[in-house]
Design a protein that fits this description.
The complex is a heterodimer.
Chain A: H1 2-7, H2 11-50, H3 54-60, H4 72-79, H5 82-114, H6 121-133, H7 138-148, H8 156-159, H9 166-177, H10 181-189, H11 194-205, H12 207-222, H13 226-231, H14 240-249, H15 251-260, H16 271-306
Helix pairs in contact in A: 2-16, 4-16, 5-9, 5-12, 10-11, 12-16, 14-16
Chain B: H1 7-13, H2 15-37, H3 51-54, H4 61-68, H5 71-103, H6 107-118, H7 125-136, H8 142-149, H9 164-189, H10 193-201, H11 206-231, H12 238-245, H13 252-255, H14 258-267, H15 272-300
Helix pairs in contact in B: 4-15, 5-9, 5-11, 6-9, 7-12, 11-15, 14-15
Classes of the chains: A mainly alpha, B mainly alpha.
InterPro entries (chain A): MetI-like (IPR000515)
Subcellular location (chain A): Cell membrane
Family (chain A): Belongs to the binding-protein-dependent transport system permease family.
């Protein structure tokens, strides 16, 4: 298109345009490469550090390329992986449970709010929306969960508080509102009830939104450490991110635990590279899935940007 | 036809839909509305035997302590200043990156840079904390190693409050870059291409085109996103501050925000009443700014107001 347009211009104009274009291309490629390096550099640093021999880290610090390559940190992590596997198990169960339940409740709520013939949809929409404007703050919420619901040190406390999110309901509702009403009407004529319409017609038609919101929910559960920080002290119930958090802050305790469990026999645990290896292991599944799931998130941002 | 049969016939008519709302309504009643009632704690001397309702009232004592200690001003100022810095730097960088991505990039280059820039959005703040440790640690941190290489002394980043505003702004920019760039890129892509063609025929060069077409067309999106962000100016990102700084008291003067302060009072020092008071203060402040921001958005463009 640009080529055709340029041909309509006078020759000297065309030359000027091409000149500007070249300048912009140079600036653009340079700056974007710089920003991309800024974004990826820390990841490379962590991976490289996790693959460096501990003595080299102590001598030269963390480096962008391993000065002395070593898999020692990973060996120790995987030799006696009980704690790590437990943490993985907790995170996977919480993520699976939370995503399925959350997706079901979010979509069901959104469906009702998207039904244009539902008389009280505005009142209920406001009921949900108001919670994003005002809250009781951390303390009452914390006391409710700890003292009244008695959920401290349960698996449920890692799932329940994050189960529903108003933003996801709104995005889902916006998407469902764009489904032609004729579908609901004809289903009604065929004698389908409201719940059946949701289950048999609206859900299958909402697959793109379900995929996007489902991934947002799953990511939030996978990355959650906050609920564990507040409510979990039992080491059997620690999710992966919180396990990593503890390991970063309390290497001495970890060392002790590892020696007691027989994972290592001497004091020469590669502290620094082990921290970095654990970081890699905790992030790994996300990084592996990232190339495939990225586009759903991009989709979600653009649905969300349209807003309802 | 069915119109004036009253409330109960409506309930009957919508019974399935209402039943389908029950879990959601219960959820938000339990985790959002009931805690709002707990705000009374801000006016009480909390003890565990009395609980929320049995503890004795103490009027405005909690607030008096909170404001007289000087903490209120410090954490409010930090929260607001950090958020203002985040809004300016993050949006500036994101718009810059989006315009460049739209104008210059070849298909593959564009895909790869966008993918790489979006990556930090996906990792938890704990992992960001680990990265920070890698970069800033005194003994083995990357930055100090680089300083050694060029013959300079180590700097004690984790014990020097002055570095942290810069560090936190950079970290925030790093984590938010991809997300915002994609939003702005979507907005630029939706600009009518005829405008660009007309500009080209009129002999506008590419920089004039960006200045006279792309940026003005992007302005409504920018203004709305920024106004909405201003609405949240008194809400600190707890995950970020807590994982970057933790309970390192040496840094509190320049890093403590309302959210970390409330958390510490509750968990570390068990000052339930004062923590509730600080939380209530934040909620009221936040509510007021969101209402103001929404009012501003409404005035600017009714379609994009929150409500």
């Amino acid at each position: 298109m640009n080529v055709i347009l340029s041909q309509n211009l006078k020759p000297e104009r065309r030359k000027a345009t091409q000149h500007d274009r070249l300048i912009l291309a140079i600036i653009g490629y340079f700056m974007l490469t710089l920003l991309a390096v800024f974004c990826i550099f820390p990841f490379l640093l962590v991976v490289s550090s996790s693959l460096t021999e501990e003595s080299a880290i102590v001598e030269n610090g963390f480096q962008i390329f391993p000065t002395r390559f070593s898999l020692e940190a990973y060996q120790i992590l995987f030799e006696f992986p009980t704690d790590m596997l437990k943490a993985y198990g907790v995170t996977i169960s919480v993520t699976a449970l939370g995503t399925l339940a959350g997706l079901f409740l979010t979509s069901m709520t959104a469906y009702v709010l998207a039904r244009k013939d539902f008389k009280w949809r505005n009142i209920f929409s406001f009921f949900f929306f108001f919670t994003t404007l005002f809250s009781g703050g951390l303390v009452p919420w914390y006391l409710l969960i700890v003292n009244y619901l008695q959920l401290k040190d349960t698996l449920l406390v890692l799932v329940l508080p994050m189960l529903m999110n108003v933003f996801y309901i709104i995005v889902m509702k916006t998407f469902m509102s764009s489904i032609p009403e004729a579908i609901i009407e004809s289903a009604k004529i065929d004698g389908a009830g409201d719940f059946q319409i949701y289950l048999r017609f609206i859900l299958p038609l909402s697959k793109p939104a379900l995929a996007t919101i489902g991934l947002f929910i799953a990511l939030a559960y996978w990355n959650d450490w906050y609920n564990a920080l507040l409510f979990i002290s039992n080491s059997d119930l620690m999710p992966l991110q919180y396990y990593l958090y503890r390991l970063l802050g309390n290497m001495d305790g970890m060392r002790k635990a590892m020696m007691e469990s027989g994972a290592v026999v001497n004091f020469n645990i590669p502290t620094e590279s082990l921290k970095m290896a654990m970081t890699v292991v905790a992030t790994g599944p996300i990084l592996l899935a990232y190339p495939f799931i990225q586009r759903y998130f991009v989709q979600g941002l653009t649905i969300g940007a349209v807003k309802g | 036809m069915r119109r004036s049969r009253g409330f109960w016939s409506d309930v009957k008519k919508y019974r399935t839909l209402l039943l389908m709302l029950v879990p959601g309504v219960l959820f938000f009643l339990l985790f959002a509305y009931i805690p709002m009632g707990g705000i009374v704690l801000a006016f009480k001397q909390f003890n565990y035997s009395g609980g929320i309702f049995g503890s004795p009232w103490n009027g405005f004592d909690n607030f008096r302590f909170f404001f007289n200690s000087g903490d209120a001003w410090r954490v409010t100022r930090n929260t607001a200043l950090y958020n203002i810095a985040f809004i300016v730097v993050n949006n500036g960088l994101q718009i810059f990156a989006a315009i460049l991505l739209f104008e210059v990039a070849g298909k593959w280059f564009r895909k790869i840079t966008q993918t790489v820039m979006f990556l930090p959005y996906f990792i938890s703040w704990v992992v960001v904390g680990a990265i920070a440790y890698n970069l800033f640690n005194y003994d083995v941190g990357t930055i100090n190693m680089l300083l050694h290489k060029i013959g300079m002394d180590s700097i004690d980043i984790y014990n020097t409050a002055a570095y942290w505003p810069v560090i936190l702004v950079l970290v925030s920019a790093w984590k938010a870059l991809g997300y915002g760039t994609i939003m702005y890129l979507a907005a630029i892509t939706s600009i009518d291409t005829e405008m660009y063609e007309a500009a080209e025929i009129d002999g506008a060069n590419i920089f004039q085109r960006i200045r006279k077409i792309t940026i003005p067309n992007l302005m409504p999106t920018v203004i709305i996103l920024i106004l909405l962000a201003i609405g949240n100016i008194f809400r600190g990102d707890f995950g970020m501050f807590y994982n970057m700084v933790g309970n390192n008291g040496l840094l509190f003067s320049s890093t403590d925000v309302i959210d970390t302060f409330v958390f510490r009072l509750l968990i570390t020092s068990n000052e339930i009443g004062m923590s509730a008071a600080a939380g209530f203060y934040q909620s009221v402040l936040g509510f007021a700014t969101i209402m103001l921001a929404n009012y501003a958005v409404r005035k600017y463009d009714k379609d994009h107001a929150l409500f």
